[in-house]
Amino acid sequence: MLDREQIQTNLPEVAVFVTLELSKSAWLLAAQAVPSGKASAHRVSGGDVEGLLALLRRLQAREQRSSGREVAIILGYEAGYLATGLVPEGARLKAA
User: Fold this and answer.
1) What is the pLDDT of residue 23?
2) Over the chain, what HEC string results?
3) Is residue 32 part of a domain?
4) Whole-structure pTM over 0.70, yes or no?
5) Are 18 and 30 in contact (CB under 8 A)?
6) CB 68: neighbour CB atoms within 10 A?
7) Cβ proximity of 75 and 92 under 8 Å
8) Is residue 66 part of a domain?
9) CA distance 20 to 16
10) Residues 27-34: contacts with CB within 8 Å, 24+ apart?
11) Contact (Cβ atoms closer than 8 angstroms) between residue 9 and residue 40
């Protein structure tokens, strides 16, 4: 098990942390940007992968404009959900 210091050193300095609550009718997102601290909540129609990816790109671009640096997206979602369609090209997934 990793201790708190190990976890903190493995995180990117600039990122948008996103959690997803997934259902058939709607996907609810909560986002928190680091280091700006900007927080937001969003709703996407259930199954709208393109809409979700567009939203993630907008959140990433907003933080990139603010920080002037490359921004990672850290995405958490329900473990039982098949997220194959949610993984953009070049993205890395790690199960925790």
Assistant:
1) 85
2) CCCHHHHHHHCCCCEEEEEEEECCCEEEEEEEEECCCCEEEEEEECCCHHHHHHHHHHHHHHHHHHHCCCCEEEEECCCCCCCHHHCCCCCCCCCC
3) yes
4) yes
5) yes
6) 9
7) no
8) yes
9) 13
10) 27/52, 29/55, 31/59, 33/59, 33/62, 33/63, 33/66, 33/71
11) no
- 64 is a domain residue: yes
Q: Which two tokens stand for residue 45?
A: 């129609």
Both tokens of 63, joined, read 């933080």
20-61 pLDDT, tens digit each = 888 889 999 999 999 889 999 999 999 898 999 899 999 999
Taken as a whole, the chain contains a residue count of 96
5 lies in a domain? no
Burial (CB count within 10 angstroms: exposed 0-12, middle 13-18, buried 19+), residue 67? middle
